[in-house]
Amino acid sequence: MKIGIIGGTGDIGEGLALRVSDKHEIILGSRDPAKAVESADKIKNTLKERGIDGNCRGTTNEDAAKAGDMVVISLPFQHVAPTLAGINPDCFKDKIVISPVNPMVRKNGCFLYCPPDEGSAALAIKKMLPESCKLVTAFNNIAARKWSMLDCVLDYTVAVTSDDTDAKMQVMALAQQISKLQPVDAGGLELAGIVESLTPLTINIAQNNKLKDLSIYMR
Ligand SMILES: NC(=O)c1ccc[n+]([C@@H]2O[C@H](COP(=O)([O-])OP(=O)(O)OC[C@H]3O[C@@H](n4cnc5c(N)ncnc54)[C@H](OP(=O)(O)O)[C@@H]3O)[C@@H](O)[C@H]2O)c1
């Protein structure tokens, strides 16, 4: 499968690409295609050192969206609307779009969940995409550094929400292929805010308890 990552040069984009480009064709997008090519080369080299053949290339955000069968929006929330506004909506037509986006602000040294008027990043992003898009939230609660440390087993829970059951199952199947991730059905998109809000919780707990890169495992 081809997976396009908008904002693919960031921490989550690169981390996700590191973990899946041995199984899927990854197209990293950026505002600056040269930066995306650099990221893709870095990922392929890291994998090559381990004898793994990574299928990853860099390009513009629009090309990444166009090329992907699935598209991940891996941007800080405040950059999602302007970035999507600059991409031809046809690039997303009928596709599964994954949002790991958590809207947060830092105030007095701690992180607050700060959703838009729609109630969550997911519900706001849904309005920015063509109706035929199947929006799925996933990977919201795993710290980027865990993705990037290839020796780190990702034995975490991935709470997945969507209003499209088939799309949700396809994203859960993708998550299942990564390390020891445990995808679970967290309900419809209207529940996405609950999942998004868990990330500032983990960051605050990490800060207050001198812990690092907390991620969530439910059992
Ligand atoms: N970091 C984590 O641990 C973590 C964990 C779970 C979920 N998330 C969520 O995943 C999403 C991505 O997080 P991240 O940490 O990967 O983000 P990031 O590294 O801060 O940024 C991702 C990419 O956004 C692009 N960008 C930066 N400023 C921009 C602007 N003004 N306009 C358009 N694009 C811009 C950059 O790409 P170019 O410069 O190449 O265009 C950058 O590489 C966020 O919504 C976050 O809430 C993060």
Automatic annotation (TrEMBL):
SUPFAM superfamilies: NAD(P)-binding Rossmann-fold domains. InterPro entries: NAD(P)-bd_dom_sf (IPR036291), NpdG (IPR010185), P5C_Rdtase_cat_N (IPR028939), STEAP_metalloreductase (IPR051267). GO terms for molecular function: coenzyme F420 binding; cupric reductase (NADH) activity; ferric-chelate reductase (NADPH) activity; NADP binding; oxidoreductase activity, acting on NAD(P)H. Residues 2-103 form the Pyrroline-5-carboxylate reductase catalytic N-terminal domain. It comes from the Archaea. GO terms for biological process: copper ion import; NADPH regeneration. GO terms for cellular component: plasma membrane. Keywords: Oxidoreductase. PANTHER family: DUDULIN-RELATED, F420-DEPENDENT NADP REDUCTASE. This is NADPH-dependent F420 reductase. It comes from Methanospirillum stamsii.
